[in-house]
Amino acid sequence: MSKGFFDVPLAVNEPVRNYAPGSAERASVLATYLSMKQEQIDIPMFINGKDVSTSEKGTMTMPHDHKHILGTYSLAQKSHVEAAISTALEARKTWSNTPWEQRAAIFLKAAELIEGPFRDRINASTMLNQSKTIHQAEIDASCELIDFLRFNVQFMTEIYSGQPESSSAVWNRVEYRPLEGFVYAVTPFNFTSIAANLAACVAMMGNVVVWKPSDHQVYSAKIIMDIFEAAGVPAGVINVVFGDPKMITDTILQSPDFAGLHFTGSTQIFKQLWKQIGNNIDNYRSYPRIVGETGGKDFIAVHHSADPKEVSVGILRGAFEFQGQKCSAASRAYIPQSLWPEIKQLLVQDLKTFKMGSPEDFSNFMTAVIHESSFDKLADYIERAKASSDAEIIWGGNYDKSVGYFVDPTVIVTTNPNYETMSTELFGPVMTIYIYNDDNYAEMLSLVDSTSTYALTGAIFAKDRYAIVQATKALENCAGNFYINDKPTGAVVGQQPFGGARSSGTNDKAGSPQNLLRWVSPRLIKETFVPPKDYKYPFLG
Ligand code: NAD
To answer: Residue 375's domain spans which residues?
Structure first.
């Protein structure tokens, strides 16, 4: 039991290292990258604090050089998933009763380990297996993950200190209990930090977890588990299984102790999982918590008072960093006719300087997309745009998978505001632009609102304050994260809590107290000091 009301260290965002030429940090991460590239590692699952290897293996490659094998990883059979569930439930008996400051200490230590000794490894694994440039790896795998861990500890204490009114006769207390059962974390390939956080923040609140990472993020998942182990996460609290998502999910969702789903990934998979949970509802002890952050069709809307250079940079960074594989990536833009010639010229001028290739070469701004099916899907959309009378490709349009899954940054201009790439999430480096008549600003805003089923992020660029006010109101429900004169990507933990509504998710805002609240079940304890001894109320007299 705690014997004090402890303050936690004030959370501060982790500074982003710049890896400039000649810097020690650049040499160090590159050396780690090169050595991990040659290692040929075999990655086990992690159940009950132990490495578990199986004979059935998946293969890890580098998307920017897909013939280069980084290693293998073990694939689960049903019995491994069952073992992960039972070991989690066993661990829950101790973990759910572990004082909060002890749990906090473990995750604060994990943050410190990432900041120091594990930084190069977690960045390098993200560069190798997810093809992020060093900058993209640094802001994700190191900085955002450190921020999630440190800020969530602070948010946890804020939640625990939320207490009801009491009087001298009655003391009311709220305990924030962990959920009764275990939580299933299902994570995407595109953010190492999100993958780690989906398991870690749930465990921080006293829960136990079975975590299924994406097949395309296995290397950094392994480093995350090394960090959690080194930080002292007890055996059985976070268990990792790799493999067939359907078999793993079916096994997990059959358990009566399934207490929650923490999902980030595509909308279609999340909807499937929700239905499956609904169909099993009679089997569960409690109503499972369902938290899902999913796809986006994120927009940049431009008013004629905007600065063309700011718009062009917003599009270039918003649409093409990490090859457009961010849920928040800008993929549709609405540009007034009067600004289009200048914005087009600025876009093309900068696109000419973009370099694409391996993250090993730090001068590359872009690398490859994650896997062959993503590459093939993007190639299909590009070919259809080439053939369409509604669309013109003004930049890019080439792709080549002979070495890595490289897709050129591609800009499509369409005359049809409902053209397929204005409404469908492609998850790649393709930006579609619709040019509108300056006088039709209100109509353009209404198009932004109605064109896609998603509502994740979006931006308005304008100098005219009334235009900003009008957009803020008109676009109220089509972005959970709305940006004024900024690109719609790059949310920072503690500053821009992240999540969207409509088809984009449950909007429980990762990196905020709202999300942590989903992983606790409050118990109110009312204690009456001097209970009444007569049932009759005065009015009865
Ligand atoms: P994905 O949906 O293909 O995979 C996500 C996870 O679901 C993976 O672990 C995958 O193995 C698992 N999965 C696949 N089929 C499953 C099944 N039948 N049952 C259970 N699990 C299954 O997504 P992805 O390609 O890894 O990531 C990209 C998607 O994630 C995009 O749609 C992107 O917008 C979204 N995303 C959203 C956010 C956000 O915060 N809104 C953040 C990152 C990514």
So the answer is: 298-484
For the segment 86-143, what is each residue's pLDDT rounded down to a tens digit? 999 999 999 999 999 999 999 999 999 999 999 999 999 999 999 999 999 999 999 9
Q: Which CATH number covers residue 477?
A: 3.40.309.10
118 contact partners, CB below 8 Å, separation of at least 6: 223, 226, 227, 230
Q: 373 with 516, same domain?
A: no
Residues 320 and 287 sit within 8 Å (Cβ to Cβ): no
CB under 6 Å to ligand 1: residues?
186-191, 194, 212, 214-215, 245-246, 249, 264-266, 269, 272-273, 293-296, 327, 425, 427, 456, 498, 504-505
Q: Are residues 134 and 174 in the same domain?
A: yes
> In this structure, which long-range contacts are made by residues 396-399, counting pairs with CB atoms below 8 Å and at least 24 apart in sequence?
396/351, 396/429, 396/430, 399/375
Whether residue 86 lies inside any domain: the answer is yes
Residue 201 annotated in active site:
no
**What spacing in Å lies between the alpha carbon of 24 and ligand 1's midpoint?**
36
Q: Is residue 532 part of a domain?
A: no
Asked if residue 306 and residue 246 are part of one domain, the reply reads no
Domain count, the chain: 2
| Distance of CA 127 from the midpoint of ligand 1 (Å) | 19
